[in-house]
Write a structure and sequence with these properties.
158 residues; alpha+beta; Immunoglobulin-like; Small_HSP; A-crystallin/Hsp20_dom; CS_dom; stress response; Heat shock protein Hsp20
Length: 158
């Protein structure tokens, strides 16, 4: 066991760091507001053999307030919720409900067939079923051996 010489300035520096950390955590910074806004639309994205399924939680939004657009392999979901007018004479004890717009974009690994996409919205959950484009689906290649087709077929993915 080695003895370590006591250095009083080491203790002062760590105290200063602790006070700086305390001040940084107690003030609301613009980055924390941006982080909370992004969490306004949590999503799950699942890849299946021939399609992608995106589930987005949008509680409090109406179906007519939600927009979905597809450009190539990028899907954008946006929604806008109009707020209530603040009533004169109202004495709010707590007012936390958030109004405004939220938007998320996702780039999928392959192009999708937007013409056959389906969207449902129920109980604040948007479910998008996005079929993969024909060129992105796996293709079957038949093997000829001496002019005869092989009984086993090999699947090749593009």
């Amino acid at each position: 066991m080695a003895l370590q010489r006591w250095d009083p300035f080491r203790e002062v520096l760590s105290l200063r760091d602790a006070i700086n950390r305390l001040f940084e955590e107690s003030w609301v910074s613009p980055t924390s507001i941006v982080t909370r806004t992004t969490v306004g639309m949590p999503v799950d994205i699942e890849e299946r053999d021939n399609e992608y399924v995106i589930k987005a939680s949008l509680p409090g939004f109406k179906p007519e307030d939600v927009n979905v657009s597809v450009t190539g392999d990028t899907v954008t979901i946006s929604a806008e919720q109009k707020g209530e007018e603040e009533r004169k004479g109202a004495n709010y004890l707590v007012r936390e409900r958030r109004f405004g717009s939220v938007s998320r974009s996702f780039t999928l690994p392959t192009r999708i067939d937007a013409n056959n996409a389906k969207a449902t919205f129920e109980h604040g959950e948007l479910v998008l079923t996005l079929p993969k484009a024909e060129e992105a689906k796996p293709k079957q290649i038949q093997i000829n051996v001496g002019g005869q087709l092989q009984s086993g077929q090999e699947q090749v993915q593009q």
